[in-house]
Amino acid sequence: MIDYPNIDPIAVSLGPLSVHWYGIMYLIGFAGAYLLGTYRAKLSSGNWTKDQMSDVIFYGAMGVILGGRIGYILFYQFEGLLSDPLSLFRIWEGGMSFHGGLLGVIVAMLLFSRRYNKHLIDVTDFIAPLVPIGLGAGRVGNFIGGELWGKATEASWGMVFPNDPSQLVRHPSQLYQFVLEGIVLFVILWFFSQKQKPRYCVSGMFLLFYGLFRIVVEFFRQPDAHIGYLAFDWLTQGQLLSLPMVFGGVALILYGYKSSSTAK
Q1: If I label 237, which of 38, 120, 149, 221 is the partner at 20 to 30 A Cα–Cα?
Q2: Distance from C-alpha of 38 to C-alpha of 52, rounded to nearest angstrom
Q3: Which residues pair with 150 in a beta bridge?
Q4: What pLDDT is recorded for position 17?
């Protein structure tokens, strides 16, 4: 067993104001996406400008925050929403959903693409390699906050999380997600997109590999206590929401390459 590095989730306290590490990780994710996006924009032969990069990050941030919160309530707390509709607005109580954030970003990119007269998929193909930076940073924030831990394990790298009422040795599944959704996904998308690819393919690769990685990690992650397993004593809500991403990603890749070969 490895001792959990019990880091105070509050990074800075200034009187009544507290800055949490989770919030800082969000800022790191957006800042990293902006810097790498600016670099990609310089290589885009004038298709992207610095001002457009600032705007696309802003639109994306709004999509992540609003979509992530709404998605969490709809996907994981819908019964609570029916009994307490105002819970949707109590963001300070926590609760964000990646899949909701993804839908929020898609809507935000649709609005952005209409404003700048760009094809929606050209926008998503451009930003897809930037997204894993925020995903990885967010999982580090989950780890520091001692939340979304894994199932009980006898592995030598297991940890006891201080917020766990059972105090069991568990998989540090947040770090698994940091590695797969953050580092590995970034490497795949970054190098895949270095050379010109058919439209739809980079977005498809993002959906495909995020979906696969999330499905795998869910086997090690403790399901939400109020939801548990949906079927077969192993199927989780996260896996169910990720499965359409896998099929959608494969469909986009096949369609992209087929459309490219037909055009030639």
Answers
A1: 120
A2: 9
A3: 221
A4: 82
Pairing of strands 17-20, 169-170: unpaired
Here the tokens at position 135 are 């995903």
Per-run averaged pLDDT (10 residues), the chain, 264 residues: 89 83 90 93 88 93 89 77 68 73 94 96 96 94 92 96 94 97 97 93 97 96 86 90 96 94 62
Burial of 183 (0-12, 13-18, 19+ CB in 10 A): middle
Is residue 167 within 8 A of residue 66, CB to CB? The reply is no
| 257 vs 253: CA distance, rounded Å | 6
pLDDT of 35 reads: 94
Can you give the chain as a three-state secondary structure string?
CCCCCCCCCEEEEECCEEEEHHHHHHHHHHHHHHHHHHHHHHCCCCCCCHHHHHHHHHHHHHHHHHHHHHHHHHHHCHHHHHHCHHHHHCHHHCCCCHHHHHHHHHHHHHHHHHHHCCCHHHHHHHHHHHHHHHHHHHHHHHHHCCCCCECECCCCCCEECCCCCCCCEECCHHHHHHHHHHHHHHHHHHHHCCCCCCCCHHHHHHHHHHHHHHHHHHCCECCCCCCCCCECCCECHHHHHHHHHHHHHHHHHHHHHHHHHHHC
**Token pair of 218, please?**
């869910």
CA 52 – CA 57 distance, rounded (Å): 9
- Please tell me the distance from the alpha carbon of residue 129 to that of residue 36, in angstroms, as a whole number: 9
Place of tokens 């580092």: 183
Burial 21-41 (b: 16+ CB within 10 A, else e): bbebbbebbbebbbebbeebb
